[in-house]
Amino acid sequence: MKTFEQKLDDYAKLITKIGLNIQKDQDFIITAPVSAVEFIRLIVKEAYSLGAKEIYYRWYDDELSLIRYNNAPDSVFDTFPKWMAEGYTELVKNGAAVLSVFVSDPELLKDVDPDKIKRDTITKSNTFKEYKDYVMNGSSNWCVVSVPSIPWAKSVYKDEKDSEAVSKLWDSIFEINRINTADPIQAWKDHFEKLEKFKIYLNEKQFAKLYYKGENTDLTVDLPKNHIWQGGCEHTTKGLVFAANIPTEEVFCMPYKYGVNGVLSSTMPLEYNGNIIDNFKFYFENGKIVSFEAEKGYATLENLLSSDEASRYLGEVAIVPVSSPIYKTGLIFYNTLYDENASCHFALGSAYPNCIKNGENMTKEEREKAGVNDSIIHVDFMVGNDKLSIIGETESGEKISIFKNGEWDI
User: Fold this and answer.
1) What is the mean pLDDT of residues 355-367?
2) How far apart are CA 132 and CA 89, in angstroms?
3) Cα–Cα distance list, 228 to 24, 208, 255, 257 (Å)
4) Chain-centre distance of CA 202, in angstroms?
5) Contact by Cβ (8 Å): 79, 90
6) How far is residue 157 CA from its own chain's centroid?
7) What 3-state class would DSSP assign to 339?
8) Burial bucket for residue 371 (CB in 10 Å: 0-12, 13-18, 19+)
9) pTM above 0.85, yes or no
């Protein structure tokens, strides 16, 4: 049986070798909370052993963010230094690898003025738009992972003491990410092969529409011509293989921007900017959210949907079965990386250009004509459970069940 330290080492190896696939003489950007510094040291050692050249760090701390929101002059939420974004943009433009360690206290900012959070988020998103576009367009091999923090662990295991909650969350992360297997690297390669079969099927069918039926959900989603389903392994524009999320259980594509109609209801809470949005519902007409409801976090959701004009349109449609190891835990993680891989989901905002033929090389005007949404945001929200079914309709009008009661039906 592996020790905790051995599992940590295996997790670091999985991230650097499979998630990022670090190359010799490649620059490397790490965004992480200061609380994760010990684990980041393991990542850095592995990265250098694989030949990484220079490593650049972007540290953050939730408590410092809270202090800033409560004490900084109001003007700071409308400005952000361009030189910082330009520096990181230059790195990814030249193919630097990017690791984001996503750890958040789900309700840290619940008492902060929502307008400050909105302005701050829009300012930073606009400043880093070119950086984000290079990453999403496939210039870099990138990966998003999570490690426990006390606030996150306590949000999942509310009745446990701090240390026990963190220990249990580590156990869940190791199990979900196949670290407990004898050979996690091979286990992930086998997992990718399974996802590849679903991708191949959907790409061959080239469905024109998807019909979603579930609890309080009745939605029609048009897919653009020459769409491409992705999932598991991805490729940079130079052909480098990587996995953008660890964990990942999804097969995903983009909807046609103006072809979503009906009602879509959440099945899990969404953590966004230190706030929880829960039991929300969207009403779509010709791709746009024309009205919405939320039992919790209405103001936060309203601010999210007003990030820019395109934030009221969808950029991703993803299919995840309830046999996902994350769903099978029966837990809500209040962390989008984990919750989105427990459930079928959509994303508000930008689409991934590699989800349509030649999308990486299209101009902005060509993408708009093809129905590819472009926004300063990309926010996933969960809509799946064991009541959800999806029917695909081909160009000829044939309707085929592809997902039934939360499981693949192909």
Assistant:
1) 95
2) 8
3) 30, 12, 11, 15
4) 21
5) no
6) 23
7) helix
8) buried
9) yes
Tens of pLDDT, residue by residue over 102-134, are: 998 998 999 999 999 999 999 999 999 999 999
Task: Quote the CA–CA distance of 262 and 282 in Å, as a whole number.
Answer: 8
Classify 209 as helix, strand or coil: strand
Cα–Cα distance measured from residue 120 to residue 22, given in angstroms and rounded to the nearest whole number? 32
Single-letter amino acid code for the residue at 120 = D
Which DSSP state fits 77? G
Contacts of 313 (CB under 8 A, 6+ apart): 257, 258, 260, 287, 288, 289, 348, 349, 373, 375
**Distances in whole angstroms, Cα of residue 191 to Cα of each of 194, 336, 382, 388:** 5, 21, 22, 23
Q: Which of 145, 143, 338 is nearest to 250 (CA)?
A: 338
Q: Is 145 helix (H, G, I), strand (E, B) or coil?
A: strand
As a whole number, mean pLDDT of residues 33-42 equals 97
Interatomic CA distance for residues 179 and 118, integer angstroms: 38
Least confident piece of the model among 134-138, 288-292, 382-386: 134-138
CA distance 116 to 119: 5
Exposed e or buried b per residue across 62-87, where buried means at least 16 C-beta atoms within 10 angstroms of its C-beta: beebbeebeeeeeeebeeeeeeebee
Average pLDDT on 292-304 reads 97
Q: 194, exposed or middle or buried, with CB in 10 Å at 0-12, 13-18, 19+? A: exposed
DSSP secondary structure of 85-114: HHHHHHHHHTT-EEEEE----TTTTTTS-H
Judge whether 251 and 202 are in contact, CB under 8 Å.
Answer: yes
Q: The CATH number of 4-176 is which of 3.40.1830.10, 2.40.50.140, 3.40.50.300, 3.40.47.10? A: 3.40.1830.10
| Residue whose entry in the numeric block shows the structure tokens 């005007």 | 365
Structure tokens at 142: 């990138």
Q: Where are the domains of the chain?
A: 4-176, 195-229+247-408
Q: Note the pLDDT of residue 328.
A: 95
